[in-house]
C-alpha cells in the first residue's frame, strides 16, 4: 500500500475530515473518497468528524447571515436616502405633509434604529385621524386597502364585534384583514377609558420593509425641510 494512503487511513481513523487530510497530504478529496469509502472507523472518530462538520457549517451560516445583514442594511439606507430626496417634492402636498407628520408623532420607528421588526405600524383611537392615515397610505404607497392589516386594542371582549364593524366602516379595510383583537387594559385603565374609547385603539399595519424605510426617509426629508 502507498505510504500516503497508509497515512491518510490513519488520519481518517483519528477522526479527521477529508478536507483536513487533503490539506495535510496534498491529496485530492476525490482520491480520498475512493481510498477511504469502505474504511470502518470508531464511533468516537465519527463523532469527532461530525462535530467538526457541524461547527464548520454553523460558522459558514453565521458568516453568510452577517453578509446578508450588511447587504440588507445597505439596501435599506439607499431606500431611505432616495425617499429623503423624494420628500422634498411631495411636502407641498397637504395630505403628504399631514401623513408623514402624524406617523413621525404616532408611528412605529424603532425598526430604523436596530430593532429586528421593520414594519409600518400606526396606532390611534381617533376615527378621523385613522381615516386620514388610510388615505395617506393608499395614495402615496399606491397600495390597496387589502394590503393593510388592523389590530384592535379593546378593553371589553363583549364589544369586539361592534368595534370590528365600526373600524371596518371607518377604514373600508376588509374584515378578514383584522387580526386577533387584543384585550390588554388593566381594570384601573378600564375605569378611565370605558367612556372614551368605546371602539378601542387600533393599529394600522403594513408588513413591507421597503415601504417602512421609504416612510422613514420621508420623515428624514421632513426634518430637512424645516431644518430640524
Could you characterize the architecture of this molecule?
The protein is mainly α. 61% of the residues lie in helices and 7% in strands. The protein is built from nine helices and three strands. The chain has a three-stranded antiparallel β-sheet. Helix 4 (43-90) crosses helix 9 and helix 5 crosses helix 6 (127-140). The longest helix is centred in the first third of the chain and has 48 residues, at 43-90. It is elongated, with a radius of gyration of 29 Å. The mean pLDDT is 86.
SSE layout and pairings?
Layout: H1 3-13, H2 18-25, H3 29-36, H4 43-90, H5 94-106, E1 120-124, H6 127-140, E2 149-153, H7 160-171, H8 187-193, E3 201-206, H9 209-225
Antiparallel strand pairs: 1-3, 2-3
Helix pairs in contact: 4-9, 5-6, 5-9
Amino acid at each position: 500500500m502507498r505510504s500516503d494512503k497508509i497515512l491518510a487511513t490513519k488520519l481518517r481513523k483519528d477522526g479527521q475530515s477529508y478536507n483536513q487530510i487533503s490539506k495535510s497530504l496534498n491529496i485530492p478529496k476525490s482520491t480520498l473518497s475512493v481510498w477511504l469509502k469502505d474504511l470502518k472507523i470508531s464511533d468516537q472518530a465519527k463523532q469527532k468528524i461530525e462535530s467538526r462538520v457541524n461547527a464548520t457549517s454553523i460558522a459558514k451560516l453565521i458568516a453568510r447571515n452577517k453578509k446578508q445583514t450588511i447587504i440588507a442594511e445597505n439596501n435599506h439606507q439607499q431606500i431611505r436616502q432616495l425617499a429623503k430626496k423624494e420628500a422634498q417634492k411631495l411636502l407641498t402636498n397637504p395630505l403628504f405633509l399631514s401623513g408623514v407628520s402624524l406617523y413621525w408623532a404616532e408611528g412605529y420607528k424603532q425598526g430604523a434604529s436596530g430593532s429586528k421588526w421593520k414594519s409600518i405600524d400606526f396606532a390611534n383611537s381617533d376615527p378621523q385621524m385613522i381615516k386620514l392615515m388610510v388615505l395617506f397610505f393608499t395614495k402615496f404607497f399606491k397600495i390597496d386597502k387589502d394590503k393593510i392589516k388592523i389590530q384592535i386594542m379593546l378593553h371589553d371582549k363583549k364589544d369586539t364585534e361592534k368595534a370590528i364593524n365600526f373600524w371596518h366602516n371607518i377604514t373600508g379595510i376588509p374584515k378578514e384583514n383584522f387580526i386577533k383583537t387584543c384585550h390588554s387594559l388593566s381594570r384601573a385603565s378600564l375605569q378611565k377609558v370605558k367612556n372614551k374609547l368605546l371602539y378601542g385603539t387600533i393599529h394600522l399595519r403594513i408588513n413591507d420593509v421597503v415601504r417602512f424605510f421609504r416612510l422613514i426617509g420621508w420623515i428624514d426629508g421632513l426634518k430637512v425641510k424645516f431644518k430640524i
